[in-house]
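Sequence in, structure out. First:
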Amino acid sequence: MELTWHGHSTWHVVVDDTELLIDPFFDNPKTDVDPASLDPDYLLLTHGHADHIGDAGHFQDAVVVATPELASYVQEHVGHEAAVGGMGMNIGGTVQCGDAWVTMVRADHSNGIETGYERSAGMPTGFVVGDAKPTQASNPDCTAFYHAGDTGLMSEMVDVIAPYLEPTAAALPAGDHFTMGPAGAGIAADWVGAEVVFPMHYDTFPPIEIDTQEFVDEVEAAGAAAEPVVLEGDETYTIGE
């Protein structure tokens, strides 16, 4: 599984022959990528804030994976024709997306759409993207990536995501102010039980500028087994090799 961070919360995930793009927002200082150069099969949207769906219009051929409320919005007002299952999905559900399995999980955040057409986008979410369908039986051969979305610390990380979905890698918001900061992200790194953790959702705007060494230090202070990895913008990390 290949993970490429394009700044903020934007991740390009490749699972075998399937490409997924999460939270497209390329108006950030960490990326030089032209959105037109990407052609994902699936577009995963954690919630409706503009810094997470701002570039969704570049990917109208991709199948949208989002809550029914958010999927409906991008179909009606952005131009997408297809949503997974024909209607989106919801928290706790797992859907097959090509070679990937996508499970939608909770995130503790807000979720109004404020792009000139104000409406609710349902619940804010995160995703766990795996190369096998999650089951109660542990699968040591499965590789999975947890994108936490915009969230604060929540008990679901340790009670559900870690034991049931078993992420190999996790991207955790660390910019503070609107989400967890480095300390919360460090604790989350311990709770989710991943082998490697990445900070995201930082340095895009002045309120979320951080020293990423704080993230590294807080992961270590939490006693997490995870390796903290700070990616450069547009850098790719491969897991499961």
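Second:
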Amino acid sequence: MVAYTYRMPAGIAGTVHRIEAATIEPQETDPTNPPTAYGVPVKIVAGRMQPLAAGDALGAIYGFNVRDFPGVASQDPLGTSTPPAKGGMSVLKRGYLNVTLNGSTAAVKGGPVYVRVATPASGKPIGGVEAAADGANTVVLPSNSYFMGPADAYGNTEIAFNI
């Protein structure tokens, strides 16, 4: 059994917190271009959910894909999980969500949330959440979206989205 001396893990990317404050919609996944991770912003193209692509603008973000509960068991290794490549998935339109923090800048409580939309690099994927602006490579979510605190040792942190 693990003993948490200082701080428990912040959570798992794609997990919704404070469910009573969340607005979640079911959406169909685009089987030709499905999201490959939970807790990332998604867009709707021709009525189906897709991950962000290089060059997408802030207005393309429809919401964040989230883990369903209860859900179908995954065959992925412990500590990882891949969203289904077809069928339905849930999208958070408003609420509190765990995400993976990318980049080297630490998140701070109340700090702005940036999403990478261009020039992917190691540890900075397109659609990744970051805590610092990177010129035209990132877009900042509206002021009603912010970090709820710093990331844990695994890079997990909570954001308030569209609150």
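Remark: The two ends are 37 Å apart (CA to CA).
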